[in-house]
Design a protein that fits this description.
The chain has about 350 residues and is an alpha/beta fold. Helix content is about 40%, strand content about 10%. The structure holds S-adenosylmethionine (SAM).
């Protein structure tokens, strides 16, 4: 188990945005070191329940140890959140009062030997889970120069993507992080601006290896359907690509019509299923950034599930899960002990 710790970001703001209440049921889709999960469980006690998910088996182990005191109120699962809906059906854990995504990596992963950081040498892996087949080294060593440039430009928003891709291809095979850093520095020079020249390429490779943006978009859509009436969705993102997906989806789902501008009459028949909690994004205070520099790029967005009361037929069709209109979408909570026995969980 790792000796490193992860300092959770925007904890007070997250608990407030989730409107955590005693007896509530919550999902932490990105358990990490269990910091946010511990705060949610603390505020939802007595009677709160938490389903925690992480793609990284190491993270689940660490969170399990940290959340031992809440053993009877938690179900901690090593899974990818892209399967959120299937997980909740399997464990009969829906609808819920709140769902949290705290995206990206934990400090434990960044400081590990798994190739996420350009600051120390390690094999070029970057997989969240060892069950994934493709590593960053596979992408770097087998993609064409054009494919590499596309990945680096699209997922890293790197202006020098073509120069970097060209140099990588010349330097192959590249097996470690520092070999890759050297190739990038040779392509663009050692010191540009405030950020390290390898930052954007490392971000791009990590996103590509783990299909991060596709998985996020798919999981957010599933999350909306798993929320009960007035349930809260809270997302903390750490780069502009993630934040754009969150912002666009929340904005779209909080509108009653999404027809293109200047369409004379509505043809989309879209109805809002969210209400934005914070119109302006929430970011860490200067004090938090000083105490935890890794929090500096965090952006928190939150929305609340609404049901269009005047339109029950539409709601039934649209929400899938929230068919219990007469109960405002709430069902009897699943019993964690019973579930644990049924699935032989430790
Ligand atoms: C920033 S950390 C979360 C830290 C956590 N909130 C805490 O307080 O300790 C992000 C976590 O999300 C996990 N993660 C990222 N993408 C995931 C995915 N698609 N499915 C499941 N877990 C994911 C990572 O493995 C990592 O442990």
């Amino acid at each position: 188990m790792s000796a490193f710790v992860h300092i959770p970001v925007l904890v007070k703001e997250t608990v407030e945005a989730l409107a955590v209440q005693p007896g509530g049921r919550y999902i932490d889709c990105t358990l990490g070191g269990g910091g946010h999960a511990a705060a949610i469980l603390g505020h939802s006690s007595p009677g709160g329940q938490l389903l925690g998910i992480d793609a990284d088996p190491e993270a689940v182990k660490i969170a399990k140890a940290r959340l031992q005191a809440y053993r009877d109120s938690t179900l901690l699962i090593n899974e990818n959140f892209v399967n959120l809906q299937a997980i909740c059906i399997k464990y009969d854990f829906y609808p819920v009062h709140g769902i949290l995504f705290d995206l990206g990596l934990s400090s434990i992963q960044l400081d590990s030997n798994r190739g996420f950081s350009f600051q120390h040498d390690a094999p070029l892996d970057m997989r969240l889970s060892p069950s994934q087949e493709i590593t960053a080294a596979d992408i770097v060593n087998t993609s064409s120069e054009a494919e590499l440039a596309h990945i680096i430009e699209t997922y890293g928003e790197e202006a020098y993507s073509h120069q970097i891709a060209h140099r990588i291809v010349q330097e192959r095979p590249i097996e470690t992080t520092l070999q890759l850093v050297r190739a990038i520095e040779q392509a663009v020079g050692g010191g540009r601006g405030r950020i390290h020249p390898a930052t954007k390429t490392f971000q791009a490779l990590r996103i590509a290896v783990n299909h991060e943006l596709d998985h996020l978009e798919a999981a957010l859509k599933q999350a909306i359907n798993l929320l009960g009436f007035e349930g809260r969705l809270v997302v903390i993102s750490y780069n502009s690509l993630e934040d754009r997906i969150v912002k666009q989806l929340m904005q779209q789902e909080s509108k009653d019509c999404i027809c293109p501008p200047r369409t004379p009459t509505c043809i989309c028949r879209h109805t809002a299923c969210l209400r934005l909690i914070n119109k302006k994004v929430i970011t860490p205070s200067p004090v938090e950034v000083q105490l935890n520099p890794r929090s500096r790029s965090a952006k928190l967005r939150a929305a609340e599930r609404i049901i269009t009361q005047g339109d029950p037929v539409n709601v039934t069709e649209k929400l899938g899960f929230l068919v219990g209109i007469e109960t405002n979408g709430w069902r009897r909570p699943a019993m964690l002990k019973r579930l644990r026995m049924a699935f032989s969980l430790p």
